């Protein structure tokens, strides 16, 4: 999921719809299941494919290329609005009327696999070329149920011209450096707020977890959630410091930084995904792309990490054209197809080799997204993840807006998580 129009809204929708989590349990040691091999030769027959948002509108054009390569095959794409997609999928699963293949939000994989609706990835589809964090979004209990179709991750956006006024010629690489730079943006560069961070609320876990992962935090152990840990506490205390020190706005809405705030210099730093590049450049006008840059999330004691999102592509067990459906999925995972899709949609490739293409390799900012994806992580695949993380978001809002004790907040999250369970 991506962009303000697709990714950002979709990620918010997943929480509102109480969807399931992406990735897999970090402690999972379940033996993987593999599906039957995809046959060799050309695809034949007609398949129905569902896709959401802008991707659903653009996919038919790409599907024509698959049809040209496979004259006996036909792909019928149905575009579905994000806000109704989850209910449409669950209704179709219950009625055994699913499409043959579909774009599926990474946060839905655990739920749909738990409903026994997804076909395990065929054993002869190679997954070694995907970013590892992205590949894990397809895995539930050790079994992969699709491919990561496209990816996104989050970086630090910062105004280079204002950073220079603040005394910085590059972005910081550690936590203290980020805090100091944000303060200097206020004191020396005239910024209202040093950095725009989400002050709790729906989806705020996506902003906090990169710092927790940077400290080596693990969200699960022995089929249980683990929020009340020293690593998580250190990350939350650090995140809170931006608000208690007056560097970030405690009244910030769900989207803590608007494009106009960044363009005007009111908020010269924020953390977000690749869709924001075109958004800020559009508002900033001619030459603005030279006034900002991006950098990896500053390192904790365990290194730099970030949240990996995007969408996966799956085949449903009920498909009557399984072989052709998987061949279409294979087509979507080919490096050259991934580059074409990027040029059509600006969705970032999940296949690492696609990043060598000049369309991506020639963009210095995109290179940084590619570097961050090498260490980006996804949350666990437990069916109850969205329910549990909603409580986390609520507690973090108390931490950022009222100065609540991070330790007590995490103890409350842990208690609620233990009560809800993992749903395994």
TrEMBL record:
<feature type="signal peptide">
    <location>
        <begin position="1"/>
        <end position="21"/>
    </location>
</feature>
<feature type="compositionally biased region" description="Polar residues">
    <location>
        <begin position="412"/>
        <end position="424"/>
    </location>
</feature>
<dbReference type="GO" id="GO:1901982">
    <property type="term" value="F:maltose binding"/>
</dbReference>
<keyword id="KW-0732">Signal</keyword>
<protein>
    <submittedName>
        <fullName>Sugar ABC transporter substrate-binding protein</fullName>
    </submittedName>
</protein>
<keyword id="KW-0813">Transport</keyword>
<comment type="similarity">
    <text>Belongs to the bacterial solute-binding protein 1 family.</text>
</comment>
<dbReference type="GO" id="GO:0015768">
    <property type="term" value="P:maltose transport"/>
</dbReference>
<dbReference type="GO" id="GO:0042956">
    <property type="term" value="P:maltodextrin transmembrane transport"/>
</dbReference>
<feature type="compositionally biased region" description="Basic and acidic residues">
    <location>
        <begin position="399"/>
        <end position="410"/>
    </location>
</feature>
<dbReference type="GO" id="GO:0055052">
    <property type="term" value="C:ATP-binding cassette (ABC) transporter complex, substrate-binding subunit-containing"/>
</dbReference>
<dbReference type="InterPro" id="IPR006059">
    <property type="entry name" value="SBP"/>
</dbReference>
<dbReference type="Pfam" id="PF01547">
    <property type="entry name" value="SBP_bac_1"/>
</dbReference>
<feature type="region of interest" description="Disordered">
    <location>
        <begin position="399"/>
        <end position="424"/>
    </location>
</feature>
């Amino acid at each position: 999921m991506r962009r303000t129009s697709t990714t950002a809204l979709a990620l918010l929708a997943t929480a509102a719809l109480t969807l399931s989590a992406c990735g897999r349990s970090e402690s999972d040691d379940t033996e993987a299941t593999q599906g039957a091999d995809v046959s060799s030769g050309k695809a034949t027959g007609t398949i129905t494919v569902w896709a959401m948002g802008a991707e659903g509108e653009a996919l038919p054009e790409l599907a024509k290329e698959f049809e040209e390569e496979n004259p006996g095959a036909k792909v019928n794409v149905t575009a579905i609005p994000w806000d109704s997609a989850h209910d449409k999928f669950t209704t179709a699963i219950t009625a055994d009327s699913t499409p043959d293949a579909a774009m599926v939000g990474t946060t839905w994989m655990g739920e749909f696999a738990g409903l026994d609706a997804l076909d395990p990835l065929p054993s002869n589809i190679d997954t070694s070329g995907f970013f590892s964090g992205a590949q894990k979004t397809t895995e539930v209990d050790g079994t992969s149920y699709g491919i990561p179709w496209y990816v996104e991750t989050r970086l630090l956006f910062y105004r280079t011209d204002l950073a220079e006024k603040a005394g910085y010629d590059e972005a910081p690489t550690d936590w203290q450096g980020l805090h100091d730079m944000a303060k200097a943006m206020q004191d020396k560069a005239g910024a209202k707020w040093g950095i725009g961070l989400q002050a709790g609320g729906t989806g705020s876990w996506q902003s906090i977890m990169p710092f927790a992962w940077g400290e080596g935090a693990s969200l699960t152990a022995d089929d249980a959630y683990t929020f009340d840990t020293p690593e998580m506490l250190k990350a939350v205390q650090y995140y809170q410091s931006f608000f208690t020190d007056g560097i970030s706005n405690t009244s910030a809405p769900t989207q803590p930084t608007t494009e106009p705030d960044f363009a005007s210099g009111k908020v010269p730093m924020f953390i977000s995904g690749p869709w924001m590049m075109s958004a800020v450049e559009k508002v900033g006008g001619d030459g603005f792309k030279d006034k900002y840059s991006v950098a990896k999330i500053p390192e904790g004691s365990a290194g730099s990490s970030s949240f990996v999102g995007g969408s996966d592509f799956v085949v449903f067990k009920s498909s009557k054209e399984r072989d052709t459906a998987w061949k279409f999925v294979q087509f979507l995972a080919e490096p050259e197809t991934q580059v074409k899709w990027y040029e059509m949609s600006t969705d970032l490739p999940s296949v690492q080799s696609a990043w060598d293409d000049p369309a991506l390799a020639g963009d210095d900012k995109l290179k940084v997204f590619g570097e961050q994806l090498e260490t980006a992580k996804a949350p666990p695949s437990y069916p109850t993840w969205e329910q549990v993380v909603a409580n986390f978001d609520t507690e973090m809002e108390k931490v950022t807006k009222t100065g609540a004790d991070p330790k007590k907040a995490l103890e409350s999250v842990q208690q609620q998580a233990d009560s809800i369970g993992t749903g395994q």
